[in-house]
Every structure is written in C-alpha cells, then in structure tokens.
Design goal:
By secondary structure, this protein is mostly helical. The protein contains five helices and no strands.
Length: 121
C-alpha cells in the first residue's frame, strides 16, 4: 500500500541525505517533471462578497481575504497592512483606503490568472 508523503516529509528526507544522494534525487525529479503532462491549475473566481455601505478598514481586509481566498502573496498583505496603517496612524480617509485595497486585491488576482495562463476577463 502506497502512501503519499507530505511536502514536509519529503523535505525532511532530503535534508537527511548526503550531497551525492541529493544530486541524484534532484536529477530524478527533473526527469519525472520533464516526462509529466503539464498541470493546468484552474484559478477560481473571487467569491461574491459585496462591499457593505459602511465598512471599517479591518472589515475590508477580512472581506477581501475571503473574497480573494486564492491570493497567498505576502506582498499583497504587506501592502494592505501599510494601507491600514495609513488610515489608523496618518488619518487617511477610510473610503480611499478601502478603494485602494480593492484595486490591490483585484490586481493580484489578475496576476495569478495571467501567471496560470487563464483569461483575465
């Protein structure tokens, strides 16, 4: 009975190998990858999470994380955090900050689609 190992299990095994075995494993994975059919990962559309009439910046981040659940980029969340700080510390207008967050997440989603080869429309 074959069991698929987790990524962490494979990393642990790799780290326990000497350099020669690591090189052999790397060569073998290159070979397997070259033989495999390409995997087309389908990126799901954003969830339908309409923007409420009144919303806090924190609420907007939570809503956008749910709406764009496929986005994992720390760069997006780092920039969203910067925008939140602009609002809370510097007093930027809540509507302006949320509008910019909407654009930030939408642009990140479009980039994921482009990188996957899917149509952005």
């Amino acid at each position: 009975m074959s069991v698929i190992k987790s990524s962490q299990n494979l990393i642990d095994l790799y780290e326990a190998m000497d350099d020669e075995r690591k090189r052999s494993l790397s060569d073998y994975t290159d070979f397997l990858y070259a033989q495999a059919d390409p995997i087309n990962k389908v990126i799901p559309p954003p969830d339908d999470s309409p923007r409420p009439e009144e919303e806090t910046v924190v609420g907007a981040v939570k809503r956008l994380k749910i709406k764009y659940h496929m986005i994992e980029s720390m760069a997006v969340f780092s920039r969203a955090s910067d925008l939140m700080t602009d609002h809370m510390v510097k007093g930027r207008d809540v509507i302006e900050v949320i509008d910019e967050m909407e654009i930030l997440f939408d642009d990140a989603y479009k980039k994921i689609l482009l990188d996957s080869g899917q149509d952005t429309e």
